[in-house]
Fold this sequence. Notes:
Order of helices and strands: HHHHH
Number of domains: 1
Distance between the termini: 25 Å
Structural class: mainly alpha
Number of strands: 0
Number of helices: 5
Strand content: under 5%
Largest sheet: none
Amino acid sequence: xxxxxxxxxxxxxxxxxxxxSLNVLAVIGRHTGLPLKGAIELVQVGVLVAGSLALxxxxxxxxxxxxxxxxxRLTGTRRVVADRICTALSxxxxxxxxxxSLWLARDLWGSQEVSELLDVPWRxxxxxxxxxxxxxxxxxxxxxxxxxKP
Length: 150
């Protein structure tokens, strides 16, 4: 694992553990009469960071979901073609996801889009996600253009 991958794993893992811990504290707080205000907003940030980094890591490791029921039965050139089609469709999917997210970002950039209790600025969270999607698309394009090994 490279240094960058190690940093992503630790950052995403820390974000996920923090989100889970905040959720536990919020539940305990609700039952003891000491609610943790804004816990949901912070959990959303943690899940966004962890999920975005997990997408990048899955793309680096070539571990995205695929229809293995079909792909595992193919060999040689057919397998290579099916893998390329799957990667191309993944690129289209992430491009559509990115375009929708950029559209929302453009429409809401001038507004005060913040969370209700803690004023978490959602524009920066959306920016983090968009950056992760750009990285995922770039990695998939690189994988699509690499020389195939049947």
